[in-house]
Amino acid sequence: MRKLKMTMWVTLDGYIAGPKGEMDWIGAIYDAAMGKYEDDFVSAADTLLLGHTTYDSFAGSWPYVPDRPGADPNEVAYAKKLNAMRKIVFSKTLEKADWNNSTVEREISPAEIEKLKQEPGKDIIIYGSASIVQALTNLGLIDEYHLLVHPFVLGAGKPLFANIEQRVNLKLVDSKTHPSGVVVLYYQPA
């Protein structure tokens, strides 16, 4: 059975964006170890789940990276992987998804997610998309949480785990510290 894994950048005080949605702190300490983590995460998957906001951000940039003059070869290879993946966008308002291999679903169906996990193939991943993470956490459908804790304290902002309906017990299964000070914490449901 395929695993459903999520990854999210988060500050030390638990925010995924500042009070005005700012995420400038992410690129401030990006290093080769982060690049390797991101590439490994995407390489182990063939299906990407996204919310509308993350879809708009990704679809507005990744399809164009391979044709960008002077683009970093590692970024081009990463973009090609994202572009080739099956993408499922959960949105009540998005009319259509033009990015290669993308479909739009109006709501999350637990039975359809379970069916997706039973299909042959690589892992299913969620990048960003806090509302999708929250909904799937409430449904108990996420098999692995990857939290990339950045050494910043914002003091206020958008929390990752808002609207969680009941306590979720997790167990730490691994951790890695990057030279930048980012700590990747790997959790599975207990």
TrEMBL record:
- Domain Bacterial bifunctional deaminase-reductase C-terminal: from-to ranges: 3-184
> What's a Pfam family this protein contains?
RibD_C
Task: Tell me which Gene Ontology terms the entry assigns under biological process.
Answer: riboflavin biosynthetic process
Classification via InterPro entries? DHFR-like_dom_sf, RibDG_C, Riboflavin_Biosynth_HTPR
Which GO MF term does the entry hold, naming one?
5-amino-6-(5-phosphoribosylamino)uracil reductase activity
User: Could you identify this protein by its name?
Assistant: Bifunctional deaminase-reductase domain protein
Please name the taxonomic classification of the source: Bacteria, Bacillati, Chloroflexota, Ktedonobacteria, Ktedonobacterales
